[in-house]
Amino acid sequence: MSARHLEVLDLDAPVPFGLTELGEVALAVSRGRPVTLTAAEAAQALRRTKSYVGTLARQGELDGVKVDEQWLIDGASVVAYEQEHPHRLAGLQRARERAALVAVPARRTAPEPRHLVADEDEVGPNLLRERVPAAPLLRQIELASLAGRMASLDEQEQKAIERARHEGTLTIRAADQLAVRLLGLTLWDLYDL
Is residue 110 part of a domain? Predict the structure, then answer.
């Protein structure tokens, strides 16, 4: 047991400020000891914000008095409020449990350059000749307003974009290189292949 718990259990000692667990407050109150909490302590005990505790005190749901712009809240009213509204704390607990179960997908911060075709002999000549529609890539380039990045393209990449506009298709290799370079997406992300 910590020294703080020993103080709370000592019936003759005054109840100190700093009780932030609802169980500690309830124990002191159940022994007939007056407990006064600051709004911040009451908020922590109820797992609410300090301003919400102030609102509850203004509305009369918690017994409290405002002294020098600081709410002082009666501990017994905090315990009574929690007993009258147990669904609020239970709802918060369920929300925390649901949030802990939700998997957050990792997000790429910077795209790693990746190209489908590293060496013609490894992959085969078909991927160099196989073509995909250029419209999805061209639409994304226009939507992203990449005029500044267009100037950084080398001559071969600029020709590939012009050829795609004219022919309506791109080789898989060219589409992947442009998607990675201009959009930070792989060809698989862009075309849902």
Answer: no
